Amino acid sequence: MATGVDPLDWISAAAVGVQDVLPTAYERSGWSHTTSKHCIGPGSHIYVWRRGFSYSHHGIVVHTEACGSECLHDSLRCCAVLHFLPPENGKAEHIALTSLAEFLLGGNVNEVRYSSSQTEFYLKRAGSCSTHASDPWPLVVLRALSTLEFGSGAGSESGVMHAQLDGAPHVEFHMLRKNCELLARWCKLGPVSGVQRFCSQETAFSPQTTPGRFVRLGLAAAVPAVAVAAASATSG
Question: How far is CA 66 from the centre of its chain?
Fold first, then answer.
């Protein structure tokens, strides 16, 4: 009897496979939004790929300071990122303020592009760009910080500052309609994101979770799968 396969595992396998066949094509194509800590600043909407290239985790940079080439970016003083984390390992969903290193978990930092053309928007992976113009960065940072309330537990440990939510409104995570991408878009766009206030009962689809996105994602994954199969047949 055939067993069910997680769609994310299938998409991830296809994406990783095409990376093995064409390791540098993605970076050279101009489709990559990979950047570095030195190129981002307060108000930047960043993301990191998870499970290969099956989905991306999003956040907003609220603070940066200059650092050396050997810096690990593992303190809030260097780079602080606000992001929405789902329930995991017995912990409830929560909005976190973490270092860039903790946000990336070993991945590469990418930056969402705003004011993109319609062509770029439809050709690129959902969530990597937007046709809307971002609000000014001070407003973006203010929106992000408005979702946090610092309690008496906020402090520092081993040179890394930690924020503690104390009495902040609880926001229920929903994979499709209340997630990290929606939070980042609300910070950048305000009501244009689909919600007036993020810390409320309002919900909205984000670009990665709109129904049409899954059709596009399936087509995008089918092409690498065919490429991998063709490359394997040729090498065999």
Answer: 23
Q: How far is CA 229 from the centre of its chain?
A: 30
What is d(CA 182, CA 209) in angstroms, rounded to the nearest whole number? 10
**Residues paired with 132 in a beta bridge:** none
Cβ contacts of 13 within 8 Å, gap of 6 or more: 52
Q: Is the pTM of this model over 0.90?
A: no
Q: Which amino acid is at 83?
A: H
Residue labelled with tokens 């000014």: 136
Q: Residue 68 burial (CB < 10 Å; 0-12/13-18/19+)?
A: exposed
Is the separation of the CB atoms in 64 and 78 below 8 Å? yes
Residue 66 and residue 188: Cα distance in Å, rounded? 23
Other CB atoms within a 10 A radius of the CB of residue 33 amount to 18
pLDDT tens digits along 179-235: 999 999 999 999 999 999 999 889 898 888 877 655 555 555 555 555 555 555 665
How many C-beta atoms lie closer than 10 Å to residue 153's C-beta?
10
d(CA 114, CA 21): 31
User: Model confidence over 129-174: pLDDT tens digits?
Assistant: 999 999 999 999 999 999 986 554 444 443 334 444 444 557 888 8
The 10s digit of each residue's pLDDT in 14-60 is 555 544 444 455 555 566 689 999 999 999 999 999 887 788 999 99
CB 199 within 8 A of CB 171: yes
59 contacts 141 by C-beta, under 8 angstroms? no
